Amino acid sequence: MECMEYDELLGTLIWKWRPYSHFEERKNGKALFVSINNKCAGKPALNNVKQNGYRIGSFDGVYMTAHRTIWKFVTGEEPEYIDHINGVRTDNRFHNLRSVPATLNARNMSASSRPDGMRGVYAHSQSGGWLGQINNNDGKVLSFYAKDRDMVVKWRKIMENKLGYITRGAK
Hints:
Elements: E1 4-7, E2 12-15, H1 29-40, E3 44-45, E4 48-49, E5 55-59, E6 62-65, H2 66-75, E7 81-84, E8 97-100, H3 102-105, E9 108-110, E10 121-124, E11 129-135, E12 141-146, H4 149-163, E13 166-168
Parallel strand pairs: 9-13
Antiparallel strand pairs: 1-2, 2-3, 4-5, 5-6, 7-8, 10-11, 11-12
């Protein structure tokens, strides 16, 4: 990228020294060229943390998020959604980012607030058994019933893995 470089180790964008051609057609172009480069070159770019936890900034009046900019910078592709694999929205190291469709992005789950920490596993009051449920890729709910809770928990974990769910610890 002409104006930024990406530090893969830290997952940060750094402003480069911008060429005079970026400023020459503007009013006070020479003064802007000097002041912006003196103020920004070599410093973190798109580094303000928004209330939702993402790093943001602007370039020539255009709002940008760091994670989407980094994805496009590294791959050359415009992502649909960017998922931070470890759930930390400020961690923009490339190996922590993945481009996913909306359905997969929505599957990221924080740890359950239930005492046992297990989502999608319910006591079946009428039979005394256990019911496991999970949404599949077609928008349908898959269910599994067994008398043994551990068997239902195992099924649920297998299905989460198979369907691309990511369970994260409490923040």
